Amino acid sequence: MGNSLHNKIYLGRRPSTKRMHFLLLLGAIAGAAVFWLSTH
């Protein structure tokens, strides 16, 4: 899953820090949401 997306990102551009920051932000938000749901 996500293999073609991966190829598009790597072939279309050099590895972008924007994408990394976006994924980190997304992961942080998801982690916070899971933490909040598990404690409430």
Please describe what this structure looks like:
By secondary structure, this protein is mainly α. The protein is built from two helices and no strands. It has one domain. It has helices spanning 3-12, 17-39. The chain starts with a helix and ends with a helix. The relative contact order is 0.09. The model has no long low-confidence stretch (mean pLDDT 76).
Short description:
The chain has 40 residues and is mainly alpha-helical. Helix content is 82%, strand content 0%.
Mean of residue pLDDT? 76
Query: Treating each run of at least 4 consecutive H or I residues as one helix, how many helices?
Result: 2
Secondary-structure class:
mainly alpha
How many structural domains can be distinguished in the coordinates? 1
Uncertain stretches of 5 or more adjacent residues: none
User: Helical content, roughly?
Assistant: over 70%
Determine the N-to-C terminus distance: 33 Å
Strand content: under 5%
Shape: elongated
**How do the SSEs run, as a string of H and E?**
HH
Mind summarizing the main beta sheet? none
Radius of gyration, whole Å: 14 Å
Number of strands: 0
Transmembrane segments: 20-38
Keywords: Membrane, Transmembrane, Transmembrane helix
Provide the fold topology.
Elements: H1 3-12, H2 17-39
How would you describe this structure in keywords?
transmembrane helix, 40 residues, transmembrane, membrane, 2 helices, 0% strand, mainly alpha
